Structure formats: C-alpha cells, structure tokens
C-alpha cells in the first residue's frame, strides 16, 4: 500500500524539450453486483397506498411525475448522504444505480434495498475517468434504463493550508470534487437533452461559497463545481433538464457515534429534499438551496 | 382619490428649531369576513386518504408534522402567488388566515376555499402598522389558533431611476417591502419562540440579490428583507423557528392573459414549494432557495 | 433630554378611518461655520511640489484630474473615518465641505485644516431630511463650488435582536444608514449628471453583505445602501458619474484608547483609498472594494 | 503541429487492474533574456522627482514602501494587461521579472523598458509545472532579488457549452486559470512568509463570480482561483502578506483595432490599480475589487 501511494502522484520524464507527464492508477471495472442479483426475490411491497381521491383538494399538488417508472443514478455512494439517497429513491419505487470506486462496500445496502423490493444495482466506477463513466452510463441504461435523475455525491477532502498542500493532492481533490462532476453531468446531459427530461443534482458544501482557512482543496473543487452548475443550468434548463446545486452547510450524520450533543444533519432528510428537487414542476425550478440543522452556526463547516 | 394621494406623502411643519413630521393614513381595521362566515356550511371533506401502511418504505419520508391541525397566516394576498398559497395551505387541511389591506378583494377566494371545506378567514390589515399587525395576530389566534406558518408576501414596486424617485415613494416602497416584513416576522417570532415551533417565510425576488437599473425602490426594500431573513434565521432557528427566504426570479402568473408564448412561473408550484419549506424536518432546514421557470433567463427579472 | 427622547418616536392619531402618523424632530439649520471663517488666515501651503518631469516614466500614471481645483462634500463627519476623509481631501488641495447633524463638533477639525491652509467649511445638516440636504447642496455650491466628490459616511447602529427591536429604532436606523444615502446620492447625482463628471462614494460595512445575529438594524440599512449603490452605478456611470461602494470590514480607529493589542483600521488609510477611487480614470472604475486590517478575521464585524 | 496537438491530451494505458495515465508536454526552460541583457545600457532615468517637502500635508499619504528598491514578478505577460503591468512596475523603479510560456514574445517589451532605464528580465516558464515555477523563482531571486510583488495574469479560454467540451480542454483550461495560480501563489507565499512582507495579486474576470452560458472552462478555473484567493488571504494576511483578487469585468484593450465605438478597459489603468493594491498600508487592505469601463454593462463579460 505504501508502494502504491508512492506511485500515485504525477511524474515527469523529460527527454530534451519533450516531457512525459504520467501517473499510475488502478482501473475500476464497471460491473454490477450480479452475485447479489441472484439472491434477489420478488417481494410484496406492503399494502399499496390508495391514490388520493379525485375529490381531494390535495390532488393538484401530487407530483407530475410518477417516479416509480424512473431510474436514478447516484455517483459517489458513501455512508450517510449517499446511502440515504439510495434508500429514498428506492422507497419511491425508482430503479436505482449506485456507483462507487469500491462497489463491494455497497453490498449490504443493495441487499437491504433488494430485500425491501427495490431494484437496485451497484457498479464500480471512477467518476474522474471519462471512459469509466461512459461505460457506467451504458451499463446502467442497458440494465435499469436511461437515468432520469443523476446525483453527483463525490467529495474528497483532507484539510491543509496552501503552504502545506502538494500539487498532486491539489489536483486529485479537484478531480474528485469538480472534474468528476463535469464528466458525470456532461454524460447525463448528453443522454437527457435528446429526451427533453431529467434532473442533474450536484452536491456542494460550505466551501462552495466561502474559501476558509485550511479548506483549500475542498474550496477550489467545490467553487468549480458550483460554476459548472451555474453554466449547465443556463445551458440545459431550456431543454427541459433540471440542474440544481445543493449546499450542505453541515456535518452529515454517517454513524451514531457522535449522536449525543453533536449537531449533524440527518442524511435521510437531505435525501428527501434532493428527491423533492427532482419532482419540482418545471415552471418553478430551483437552481440552488442550502441545508443545515436548526441548531447549527451558519457557514462554519467544510 | 386625487385629494387622498396629495395627502399621502410625508409632510413637515417647523416651528423654530422643532419640526413636526407627519403624514395621513387610512386606518385598516382588522376584522374577519364575518359575513361570509355565516354562510359557511360544514362540508364533507371527501373520502379521507388512509395513512400509508406502517410497512411502506415511504413512511419514513412522510412529514413529521400533521399540517391538518395547524394554522397558516398569509400577509399580502394578491392574485397569483398569494391566492395559491391560500389554496395550497387549505388543501393540506390547515386553517388559513388571509391578510390584505383590502380584505374585500378576498371574498371570492374565501368562498371558494370554504366551499371546498376549508376553514379560511380574511382580515384587513396594514402590515406596515405595528398596531394593525398586533391586532391581526391576536384576532387570528382567537379565531383560528396561533399560526404555525406565517408568509410575508407583500410586494410594492413602481419602476423608476434614482434621479426620478421621490422620497415618499422611496419610503413607501421600503415600508411595504421591508418594514412590513419586519413587523410581521417579529410578531410571528415573538409568538412562536415560546412555543418552540413554527415557520416564517419571507418572499424575495431578483431584486433581493441584484440592484438593476430602474429597480431602486424594489431593490432597497428587498435587499433589506433579505438582511432581515439572514439575521432572524441566525437568531431564532436555535429556538426551533424555521425562517426561510424564497427568491422568485420570475414573473408569476396571475391571470391567463399572457399565457401564449410568455414565460411565467405557475404560482401553485411556488406555493407547493413554500409549503414544502414549512414541512422540512429541522435537521436539514433551508435558509434560501430560488425559483424560475425552466425556459427563463437567470436574474433578469424584478 | 429625556423628554426629547420620549417625543422622538413615530406616533399615530386616529380619527375614524383616517390616521395621522407623526413624529417631532429638531430642525438642523444648514449654515456654515462663519465664526471660524473670520479667523481664517491665508496660509502659505509649504513648498510646492514640482510636477514630475515630462520625461519621467511615471508621468503617465499621474491622476488625470487635478483635485486641487475641486470641491468635496462629506456627509456624516465623525471622529475616525470622517475626520480623516476631511484631512485627506484637504491635503490634496480640495475645498472641503463637512456636514453633520451637529456642526459644532467639527470646530476643532475646521480650525486645524484651515490653519494648514485648507478651505474647509462645516455645515449642520440632517441627511435624512430632503429639504435639509437640498439646502446643504445649494449652500456648499454657493460657498465652495459644486462638489466633485460626495461621500456618504453616516452610520447609525445600536445592536439588538429582532425580537427586542422596536419599530421606531428600526425605522430610524434605516433612515440614517439608507434613506440619507439615497437623499444625498440623488441630490449629488442630479447635480453631477448635467456636468458629466463626479464621484459618489457610499460607505458600507460587514453588515452590507452578511446579516449577523444582533445586527438587524445595521444590516437592513446597509443592505439597502448597497442596493442603492448597485442601481445608481448602473444608471449614472454612463453619464460619467463614478458611484462606488466601500465595505469596511473592520473597527475603525477613532481614538488611541484601544491601541494596544486591539486590531483596528487606520482611518487615514481608508480615506486615502476613498480618494483613490475618486481619482480612478473612467476606463477602469471600481464599483465595490473591501477593507480590513492584515491581522483581522474576515467578515466578523459590524 | 497537428501531430503535437494529437499528442497533447491525457492518455491511458491499462494492464490488468493498473492503468498508466500520461500525456506529453514540451518543457519550457527557465532562462532569462541574456542576449538582450548584453545590449542593455545604463540609462539616465530623467530628472529625478524631488520628494514632497516635509511640510506638505500630502506627506502623510505617501506610500509607506519605496517601491524603487523592490522586485516584481508577473506570470503570464500578454499584450494589454500583462504588458502594462510591466510598464507600471518599471515606471515606479521596481526591478521586473516577466514570465511567459514563450519568452521571445517579450523581447520588444524588454527592449522598450530597458531603454527607458528599467531593470527588466523575461523568463520562459510553464506556470502549471511546479518544477518550472520553482526554477523561475530561484532564477529571479538570484538575478533580480526575491520578489516583493507577484501577479498571476495567466488566462486561458475558448468558449463552448458543457455538452461540447472535451475533458482535455476542460483540464487544460483549469490548469492555466487555476492550478498555475496555486503553484505560483504557493511558491510566492513560501518565499514571502518568512520575510513577513509581500503582495500576491490574482487576476479574475466576470466568470470568477458568474457561470454564464458558453463559459464553462473559464468559469470553473476562475471560480477556483477566487477560492484560492479567499483561502490564502485568510491564511497569510496575518503573516504580513497581502493577497488580493482583482475582477476585471471588461474587455481589456490589447490593440488599437477596435478602438472606435467599442468599449474596453485601458490596461494601463488596471495596472496602476494593481500597483496601488501593492502599496496599500496593511491596516486597510483590500481582498477584492472589480473594474470595468464607465460605459460598460455590469457582469456581461468573460
């Protein structure tokens, strides 16, 4: 592992006026969780909820989409936010594709959601690698259908001052926080624009808006991702693609360790809000909204 | 009426070193629509929607509040946005108080919502007058219960350059767009903080964020309202009061006249989003979100 | 004085449907410091600085204006920032008009600058009173010439939460921080636009950009003043009037009391920067810039 | 050249689970313009400007630094902005180091400034290559002294929509607009912090603040550069290093072709303002300021 890390930076080999810049990387194969698929059983999805009566005044506010015929893709599925996005989308009846560098870590989640009747596949994918993302989209489309909702939820960050930050770490953070968002959002938009529908949600944080001490790597990537969100929204909203940027100004709970006295956002509530963005009717779309717990300071997070 | 207008500015009477600054105003009595109340009949509210089964995976995402036992107050109810807020809140089962300088214009709306089974009262109120707002809150509380959700939806604007703007118009715009918001929000917060729950929604527009040519009066008031929203959120979120600022970067449809080819936000979708803010669980509250139609330019509106 | 304070809020007298809103105010007569004028002596202004040689490469960067033939007006002259603006403008050779509610407090400053050879008059003026400002502009123009540079430096603030803020204090803060800025800037712009030249500088603070806890009154006024700056810049820059907004994110030193260990901005450096804005050539004007000391936290002030 | 372009993207070679990512680059040797140095003659710098008399009231506003003993480094020297920065700094008497990928294009400028008595060297450097920047700083320090003022003025942009943007172009734009700024600013800060003085100026544009249609590549890099500026300012201001971000919301004149009727910022005025930032006393530093011509629309540029 130490050997691997020593190989993981950019290197340069110069011969006369020509240099070769290179780094090694581990390929992340795009493949679904077939093993788990075999174990999947058809489940009764509980007593169906009867539709609201036609006479009900609430009828007008039901979502215009029936999400239960749709496919969602989450890129960057970690404990907390990513896991709860998966649960929320599956709960609505969507087919759900989960992508992560390490798909094996998603086994338990896939089992859980499949057991509850969800149609959920996990895929290995390196979001910063254009070919890996292209393969992901093609595979998901073939196996679950073209995604109607794509969420970019990758975040990479290790704190440090500008003076202490090394170039490979700076580049790598940007690749995770911003370049991957571009590659995924572009692939999604290219697929959605001809269809004239779909939602692309990019996930930001405090550092999307404020460059604080010790947050260089995160802020550079997150500012860039916000720029992408602004440009893409202006470009593809008119084609019917809803691009939105969510700003999570909070710690997100990903375990129960800190529960006592520590302020954290519940990821299932964030996930519900992201799902709500997907369901917004197009005459009143939101391009940006922020989230933090009620008892949290404003703009003091990562 | 012309006489009235000529009286409606601030005046100054000086005697030696002391000046008296004064203006005349018409009092707006706070009283509900009793006439209509007498006509109201108990209505069957349609077949009730059965609650989702406990086994349903969607159960976790149902709102934590049962809005049907709550009271909403909308200050500034005009065709379009205000009317649809009323319809949305009534549709959820909330008791709804509507306040407007001219409550009589709300008669048809009250009749409509009452006929559909809603418990809706309209009140005359001058939001820029502290005493009028205090009377409003007291009356609403007595008649419908203390409000759980208060929306400030007053907006006053006539375009004009800085050079052409007269001081009384400048002051009056600010009083409607900002002072009234302060008076209403403060009264709401004073009532909600001891109870530890409630939502206060302030309504902004493009001019909340950008001071564009010819938008002086609107921008000065809307910037100020946004300042209020930021301060109040920081102060009362920790008491469990959700303060949020919505930025409507769009024309809002208030009739069918411009429908063909003209881009407008559907007010019922805005209203649904405002209701959604009220229902956000407190571990992931939003302080600001924007709205515009899919086919609209960004930040080019009032 | 206590009597006076008790009179100083807005009052309301209602007769049937008509209300009279009124408050008392002390008139601030606009008159210059004639007494001091009599004592003024013609002073030798020291050895004149020879102009840079035509061959000097620095010649191209000399200001395009010769400020020494110009007139400056500062509205809101207090110890610290206002005093140093006066010193800076006088040092450049400008004729300087100082306006304050209480012109007598400016006696020593006028004496000091006059003794150094400056042509400096102090005027009483209530910036929130349109007639007082009109009289001020007329008097200054008659006595010192039409102003080429007008700085609005009034700031009024007493901290407090939204819940604790009374309406008269809210209104009065806004009148000082924003309404006065509008009245002064409009009067200045109306005078400058026909001449096609001039600078109007509006003074903001941390609370111009962020609404922090306990800063309600300041933030509402300062947000509004910033809106005014944005609108007015877009409207009158094309006429050759430079409108700029300076954001002082710092405590400004106004005495030597806190000097040890306490971080403050030197007002003479702020004043020099404001003068620099006035001298900017019009192909590269600045609309907003911020200031704070090197050893200060960002965005943590009033 | 076509061959070269075809080589210039990132490539990937996979063997089993390991991939090699690589691209070719041309090395940019860091060397000064020695040829021109030989031709340089000692020049009389014109009649020196006598210092302002000690009795002059303007004395207090003279810069606290004597720039004529200092060294400036400009990274990214193109016609227009970069050239005029060089002229401005040289005019103040600073030693000036110019860095560009193609130093030969700076020959005429170096000749011009040397003929006027300046001590100016041009260096080839690839700002996106850490080793090239390290060599540049070392060479400049050895030949002209450690820089007191470093300006990052590289900008790379070709317009295009998100859908049409290829990954190598996206990465390359970011490397020029943001990564290079990080490498240069970090190298400068590492040199300046131990000395406790110096200025680092990063150059932004409209796209630093707004992500507009067709401006993806510029906006992602410029947003990131602004994040860097915010973080670095908070980190090194307390060490006495002035980091500032200038936002040029304008076309900058780099030739006389468009002069008639076309609105452009004069680069010599921008350069003068940048020099002014370097001279700001540290009790009132600016972190960000914007520039545009008087007759230009706000926020409509690149």
Task: Explain what you see.
The structure is a homotetramer of 302-residue chains. Chain A is α/β, with parallel strands linked by helices and 302 residues long. Chain A has one domain (31-291): 3-Layer(aba) Sandwich (Rossmann fold). Chain A has helices spanning 2-7, 34-39, 81-91, 107-115, 130-144, 167-192, 216-236, 267-279; strands spanning 11-15, 18-26, 71-75, 95-100, 120-124, 149-152, 198-205, 241-248, 288-291. The longest helix of chain A has 26 residues, at 167-192. Chain A starts with a helix and ends in an 11-residue tail after the last strand. The model of chain A is unreliable at 1-7 and 35-54 (pLDDT under 50). Chains in contact: A-B, A-D, B-C, C-D. Chains A and D meet through β2, α6 and α7 of A and β2, α6 and α7 of D.
Please write out the topology.
The structure is a homotetramer of 302-residue chains.
Chain A: H1 2-7, E1 11-15, E2 18-26, H2 34-39, E3 71-75, H3 81-91, E4 95-100, H4 107-115, E5 120-124, H5 130-144, E6 149-152, H6 167-192, E7 198-205, H7 216-236, E8 241-248, H8 267-279, E9 288-291
Parallel strand pairs in A: 3-4, 3-6, 4-5, 6-7, 7-8, 8-9
Antiparallel strand pairs in A: 1-2
Helix pairs in contact in A: 3-8, 5-6, 6-7
Summarize the structure.
The structure is a homotetramer of 302-residue chains. The first copy, chain A, has 302 residues and is α/β, with parallel strands linked by helices.
